[in-house]
Design brief:
single chain; rod-shaped
């Protein structure tokens, strides 16, 4: 048989364990939601990065073309 003094202590420990497990489950759910939001944000940033890189390439091409035109306008020495 179990000692009656241990039963309330065991129940208290089980309650504390249940509370800790519930807190871990809640934290895991929060982290899952946060992770999904961060993945969505990362995808958006990667798309933005690609767009900006393309704009930079286009700007470089235009600048190179302008420089080439300027060189043709320079008087030859």
């Amino acid at each position: 048989m179990h000692n009656t003094d241990e039963s309330p202590n065991l129940q208290s420990e089980l309650n504390a364990l249940e509370t800790a497990i519930d807190a871990l489950i809640n934290r895991c759910q929060q982290l899952k939601i946060e992770n999904q939001a961060l993945q969505t944000q990362q995808q958006a940033l990667e798309i933005e990065q690609s767009r900006l890189q393309e704009k930079n390439r286009e700007a470089k091409t235009r600048i190179d073309a302008l420089l080439a035109r300027l060189k043709t306008l320079e008087p030859e020495s």
